[in-house]
Design a protein that fits this description.
There is one protein chain. This protein is mainly alpha-helical. The protein has one domain: Up-down Bundle (Fumarate Reductase Cytochrome B subunit). The chain has nine helices and two strands; from the N terminus they run E-H-H-H-H-H-H-H-E-H-H. Strands 1-2 form a two-stranded antiparallel sheet. Helix 1 packs antiparallel against helix 2. It is elongated. The structure holds protoporphyrin IX containing FE (HEM). The site of protoporphyrin IX containing FE has 22 residues, from helix 1, helix 2, helix 5, helix 6 and helix 7.
């Protein structure tokens, strides 16, 4: 029998995809402003000045929706001693030997660390972005602070960009994961293999 287990509500999925789409817009407009090699991307946003005007607003929209998303998943991403064990057994993780690993709950340690990477870098982007936001905030703040903020902004952006590449790669790598965020369900076999403690909790088996 092919079982199907509910993993996300429609609200959670809508929120996730809004964050994902807005993240892509923030990343493309940000890269356009970051280096001349990416400058051609300004055409997607109506030219240079519009890219510069829109980018901070896009960032604020992403932050707001991310806060709602993260608030819903916060509790499920707390790091446990079993997660520390799991992290030490990367060889077994990479070779798909899940039977040798502590049973993960709804999220495994890799997903949790990535979640906290997002939770740290997205507010850092917002705070450093506000500091350098012309003409609203930057003119009223010390130039030394703005210099630090520019570096923090670029570093946090690279961290989250790499993090999201890993996030998407993991979704493709672990077959059957994407449907959790498209249909809201996963197969019983997927849950049993990758998130056994959660599987037991959901099915009572
Ligand atoms: C095309 C891009 C993306 C795809 C295909 C994707 C796909 C997915 C999938 C399938 C899940 C469910 C994983 C599971 O339940 O085990 C998920 C979870 C999640 N995604 Fe994405 N995602 C994308 C972009 C993003 C972006 C840009 C963000 C945030 C900036 C994000 C944040 C999250 C969060 C917070 C979770 C819940 C994981 C947790 O709480 O640990 N995703 N994503």
């Amino acid at each position: 029998m092919h079982t199907s287990i509910k993993r996300y509500t429609t609200t959670e999925r809508s929120n996730h995809w809004i964050v994902a789409i807005v993240f892509v817009l923030a990343a493309l407009s940000g890269l356009a402003l970051f280096h001349p090699a990416f400058y051609f991307l300004v055409h997607l946003f109506g030219g240079g000045p519009w890219t510069r005007i829109l980018h901070p607003f896009i960032g604020v929209v992403m932050f707001v929706f991310f806060v709602v998303l993260a608030a819903g998943f916060w509790r499920l991403n707390r790091i446990t001693p079993a997660d520390r064990q799991w992290s030490k057994r990367m060889g077994d993780v990479m070779h798909n030997r899940d039977d040798n690993l502590p049973e993960p709950g709804k999220y495994n340690a890799g997903q949790k660390y990535l979640f906290w990477t997002m939770v740290v870098s997205i507010p850092l982007l917002l705070i450093s972005g506000v500091v350098i936001w012309q003409p609203w905030f930057a003119p009223f703040l010390p130039v030394g602070l703005q210099r630090v903020a520019v570096v923090v902004h670029a570093l946090a952006a690279w961290i989250i960009l790499l993090g999201i590449i890993v996030h998407i790669y993991a979704v493709i790598w672990v077959k059957g994961t994407l449907r959790a965020m498209t249909r809201g369900t996963v197969s019983g076999a997927w849950a049993k293999h990758h998130h056994r403690a959660w599987y037991r909790e959901m099915t009572g088996k």
